[in-house]
Amino acid sequence: MSETQVMDADWLEFHPDPKTPDFKLPEGAVDAHCHVFGPSPEFPFAPERKYTPCNAGKEQLYALRDHLGFARNVIVQATCHGKDNSAMVDACQSAGDLARGIASVAPDISEAELKEMDAAGVRGVRFNFVKRLVDDTPKEVFHAIAAKIKPLGWHIVVYFEAADLEELVPFLESLPTILVVDHMGRPDVEKGVDHPDFQRFLDLMERNDNIWSKVTCPERLSVSGAPGYSDVIPYAQAVVDRFPDRVLWGTDWPHPNMKSHMPDDGNLVDFIPKIARTIEQQRKLLVDNPMRLYWAR
């Protein structure tokens, strides 16, 4: 009999009734960063997981998509599922052409397995360096995976914290595909946009036109808090203003490992015009850029 997987006692569940956004999304908008958790009776969480979340499956994700006004989703493999991509792949297949996926894979994955995921809509892999979420992985393992996925035209999503960027720069600049950095590299917003840590991130994007950024997760980065997340606005504006053709936006639903509060996803959509202040910036952020990266074929 399989293990009964009960969510952690301090787990915060996603908002049950998000508001209808005041901001009207452009037609064809993409939620380019979200996840599915199980549901665990059908897709059990991985034995090596660092946390046990609530169930948050594809039906709930697609109901949120329709409620907020998005047309498409990019579903990023959640770390609680380890390298078993079944739930993410099933969600992509269920959505038809309206979802793409980002997988987590081991270096021994076969070409046939990669092609099977590609047919289901997967377009990249995620390398996670956040130590509280995953065990440390040698860099040569990531290089081996990068060599396998490059022929498919996939890209690499990287997740790290600002304090680790300086050590990671040579590695990141050695990777052979487009890189998409999660959540602007998680800056410490109490330091200010001119602090060397955030300037290092902007310089990295300036030097490397293959590096993109998700201007996501004000709810994770903010110290001032909901509903305005005002201290995150200057950081996201700086990235959108300088690199309008290399930015993506997503809800991060169902918001794994939030400890301070659970955001209202409608309120997060209303954050978008504060960071992408022109119609052209909004169209690139929400439609043109994700369509070019995920739906070019």
What features would you describe in this structure?
The chain is of the alpha/beta class and 297 residues long. It is 35% helix and 12% strand. The chain has helices at 58-68, 86-94, 111-120, 139-149, 165-174, 196-207, 218-221, 233-242, 265-275, 279-294; strands spanning 30-34, 72-76, 99-103, 122-128, 155-159, 179-181, 211-214, 247-248. Strands 1-2-3-4-5-6-7-8 form an 8-stranded parallel sheet, with helices on both faces. Helix 4 (139-149) links the parallel strand 4 (122-128) and strand 5. The longest helix is centred in the last third of the chain and has 16 residues, at 279-294. It is globular. The termini are far apart.
Task: Please give the structural blueprint.
Layout: E1 30-34, H1 58-68, E2 72-76, H2 86-94, E3 99-103, H3 111-120, E4 122-128, H4 139-149, E5 155-159, H5 165-174, E6 179-181, H6 196-207, E7 211-214, H7 218-221, H8 233-242, E8 247-248, H9 265-275, H10 279-294
Parallel strand pairs: 1-2, 2-3, 3-4, 4-5, 5-6, 6-7, 7-8
What's the main sheet like?
8 strands, parallel
Order of strands across the biggest sheet? 1-2-3-4-5-6-7-8
- Outline type: globular
**Radius of gyration in whole Å, from Cα?**
18 Å
What is the helix fraction of residues, given as a range? 25-40%
Number of helices: 10
Helix and strand content put the structural class at: alpha/beta
Order of helices and strands: EHEHEHEHEHEHEHHEHH
Low-pLDDT regions: none
Number of strands: 8
Strand content: 5-15%
Q: What number is the mean pLDDT?
A: 96
Straight-line distance between termini: 42 Å
